[in-house]
Amino acid sequence: MSEAPAISQEERDELRRNGILLTSLEEIYNWGRSNSVWPLQFGLACCAIEMIAATCSRFDIARFGAEVFRPSPRQADLLIVSGTVTKKMAPQVVRIWNQMGEPKYCIAMGACAISGGPFKQGYNVLKGIDRFIPVDIYIPGCPPRPEALLNGLIQLQEKIKSQHLKGPDAPRHLRDDVDCIYPVPEFGEHDLVPPKNPNLYEPPTLVRPDKP
Amino acid sequence: MQSIEQIRDLIVARFPGAEVTVIQNPGPAAQHSLLLGHAQARDIALFLRDEPSLKLDFCSNATGVDWPEKEIVETTKVKVAQPDGTEKLVEQKTKRLQPGYLEAVYHLYSMALKHGPVVIRLRTGNRTDAVSLPSLTPVWRSCEFQEREIFDLFGIVFEGHPDLRRILMWDEFKDHPMRKDYVEPDDYEWEPTPHDAVLTKAKGHYPAPGSTANAEGGM
Prior knowledge:
- The complex is a heterodimer.
- Chain A is of the alpha/beta class.
- In chain A, about 30% of the residues lie in helices and about 10% in strands.
- Chain A has six helices and five strands.
- In chain A, the strands form two sheets. Chain A has a three-stranded parallel beta sheet. A two-stranded antiparallel sheet of chain A has the order 4-5.
- The mean pLDDT of chain A is about 90.
- Chain B is α/β, with parallel strands linked by helices.
- Chain B folds into two domains: about 140 residues, Beta Polymerase, domain 2 (2-Layer Sandwich); about 35 residues, no CATH class.
- In chain B, about 20% of the residues lie in helices and about 30% in strands.
- In chain B, a hairpin with a 4-residue loop joins strand 6 and strand 7.
- Chain B is flat, with a radius of gyration of 24 Å.
- The N and C termini of chain B lie far apart (about 60 Å).
- The chains are: A alpha/beta, B alpha/beta.
- At the A-B interface, loops of A face loops of B.
């Protein structure tokens, strides 16, 4: 399936215009799941208000097939980390992520979920949820407007549609070599233990122009 | 409403020998406060709540203050005898170490009489082992969470509090982050525009080019 298709995209589009629908299993599988992303009903701070606005009639996330906010992680495909993740909340967020069934995706919504935002230097705020959870889409903003969330959702749909069902870039649930459970940090005496998941995240190294 | 001195006189008339001191606020707000001794603090609080002319029935805010140990230099002018028999005024500097303490501050209002605030303070003996204060939660129920927050962030132990646990940080946490000598975990990460205290941290983690010490840069 990941090999080059037997007919080109132009030929396929030409057939479609003539009423002949030609598809592949990969394409129709990804088309189906990308248009029915069920987010988790989960908000952490002010970004959650914008997330709620995106679900209401003015912005209407239902246009993209993601209106079914599930109250249970077992039924959700998408974790929208909308808001500041305090160190006290971080283990619970990772636990919810582990409880979600594959295939699952994560959107870091807003400056706080991406990097800690204005609270980055605080002792009690996680410097970005990507220390513990693999994040698929980052939506900057403080908070991002509902349009930005919708754009993030469209980007996520594009990402789902471009995933191959075999090979090294296949989604986690179709691979045997990756573990879908992520370690939950413990509460330490001064900080979370460990403060980050080293398999997921390393802080950027400073590159100086005078050094090779 | 009465002035803070009149309130102090009311308290002293009701509780003879009670430790009540007026702490002046020199700022333009002039919000003076009453420092209460531990022994009768809760009785005085009950009196402030129930006294018909005060009726301070609402504690809107309880907070903590950390006063670390401070060296105070006092300059005094003394006359020193000179060898020729005359006297000369000489400035003499004396250093005095003011011991540190923790403080809980309560802001009281009256819903019934629509006045306030009256500010009362309680001080601990020091910042290390004598850190307990009488809890005022039995007097004003609204102090419950705020005293827990003071316990969490400043480490003041409130005796008589019905449920004294940490409220913001997790139970395993050992430090008291709002104390002046709190050292936060060394988890600095790269910042595009470090400044002030963050710049100091950035220099420690990413030394400037040319310095040989730890030239690879820390993580």
